[in-house]
Specification:
The protein is mainly α. Helices cover 78% and strands 0% of the residues. The chain is built from 13 helices and no strands. The protein has helices at residues 2-12, 21-24, 28-36, 43-63, 66-85, 90-102, 106-117, 126-153, 155-170, 176-200, 203-210, 220-235, 242-274. Helix 4 runs antiparallel to helix 9. The longest helix has 33 residues, at 242-274.
Length: 276
């Protein structure tokens, strides 16, 4: 059933518009934290806004059984996953960016990048495209992480991952323990994503780039950027202009992440068969 929920959500995220505000709002997680733990920054606030909902979700979905339980899991699990990862597909948004870039319209590209990825407007040079590619990579990694914990430990674990990250954004100065939890929850999804990059990209280049760092409790985001960059350096060729080179790099990142998504779906399907 988890695999069906994931496939349904990935298909629904390709739709454009028509979603209710509680699913589509970019600040939906922050509003949740503010409602459950108003003005609280310490351990009690974290337990009320992050841990308790995750425990309730885990118990609720574990209680579902039989035909009606499977139907409830499909419906409620799909809604929960859409709320966690968002209704807007990063891949579709990047497609639209690439269309504007191929039409040689930098202003439209930067405007859409600011709307969809919160990328500040500026000169569309190599640094600007690099920052945009990093934002795309992190958005997709957040998706992969949520899918991993949903598949392995269920909706409660996926909810814990997402709400804990939202808590870090809301209370960055009072969350050392929350940051350690996020690093632990990101460790396995990060390494599996690197394996996916190696399988669909340049195996030797990726392994050389991450050599000596795979088994450390490192910053997963930095390590992912290193692994993706190793593949992109092999794929992206010299272009005629700075804008064209940046666009080629963004397109290569988009293609790499799409191929990695296919590998992730294979991982999930294999896990589902083994756990059957």
């Amino acid at each position: 059933m988890k695999l069906l929920v994931i496939l349904l959500v990935l298909a629904l995220r390709r739709l454009d518009g028509g979603w209710p505000a509680w699913l589509a709002r970019p600040d939906r997680h922050q509003r949740w934290l503010a409602a459950l733990a108003p003005g609280r920054e310490g351990t009690l606030g974290w337990w009320l806004a992050v841990a308790l909902p995750s425990i309730v979700a885990a118990l609720l979905f574990a209680w579902f059984d039989g035909f009606w339980g499977a139907l409830a899991t499909l419906l409620l699990g799909s809604l929960l996953l859409l709320w966690l990862v968002g209704v807007e597909s990063e891949f579709r948004q990047t497609d639209e960016l690439l269309v504007r870039g191929r039409l040689n319209d930098p202003e439209a590209l930067m405007k859409r990048a600011e709307e969809d990825f919160q990328q500040p407007a500026g000169e569309p040079d190599q640094d600007w495209f690099h920052a945009l590619g990093a934002r795309l990579l992190m958005r997709v990694f957040n998706l992969f992480s949520a899918l991993f914990w949903l598949c392995v430990l269920g909706p409660g674990a996926a909810l814990l991952l997402v709400l804990n990250r939202a808590w870090l954004v809301r209370h960055p100065r009072h969350s050392d323990w929350s940051r350690s939890l996020d690093a632990a929850l990101s460790w396995i999804p990060c390494r599996l994503t690197i394996v996916a990059f190696a399988l669909v990209g340049h195996f030797a280049a990726v392994l050389h780039a991450v050599a000596g760092r795979l088994w450390r409790l490192d910053d997963s985001r930095e390590l992912l950027g290193v692994a993706a960059g190793a593949t992109l350096r092999e794929e992206v060729k010299e272009a005629g202009s700075v804008f064209q080179a940046g666009l080629d790099c963004l397109e290569a990142m988009h293609g790499l992440l799409l191929r990695a998504l296919a590998v992730w779906l294979i991982f999930i399907a294999l896990w589902t068969l083994l756990a059957w």
